[in-house]
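Working notes for the structural subgroup meeting. M.R. asked for a predicted model of this chain before we commit to crystallization trials. I am recording the input and output together here so anyone reviewing the notebook later can reproduce the run.

Input as submitted:
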Amino acid sequence: MAPQVDEVLVVVATVQSVEVLDGSTRLPTFAVPYQFLFVILHLFRESWFERTVRAGADTLYKYADVLRLWFRHTEVLVAEVGQLTECFGIADPVIWVLGHTDRIFSTGIVEALGLASRVDEDWLFSARASGGAPLRWRGSMRQRLHARDRAELLDGAVSRATELELGSW
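Returned structure, recorded in token form:
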């Protein structure tokens, strides 16, 4: 479901600015919770779809970007991200990225955000083929990120992915 105009206005109202260069210039940026979600959703797009996986767009440093934001802004993220995730209906991709982040770095972000009860192993190992068919990963995300040809780790359909409404993902 697309966000309503008033939801978009709430996001726009939370735009902040940061000093850049020598401090003489300010650059608009998302408020921290929205920045965190943007990074997560961007990584999901690059890690879940076969076409971007084949391009090698999913890399370890992008998961480290998620972790850096988490460590720097844990308090505000714990306070706001769970609610925003539900409000915008993006729990599945958020859990997918953060579940893998937790496993790569031995962290507990999913639990801290109150999303642990929603983690589903089929979902964490799911992907989407270029033609739209569901796929399943073999091995851990760590193994996948170190593989020369990640697409070789993909198998056929996964049960839960076919049940989810993923048209917008």
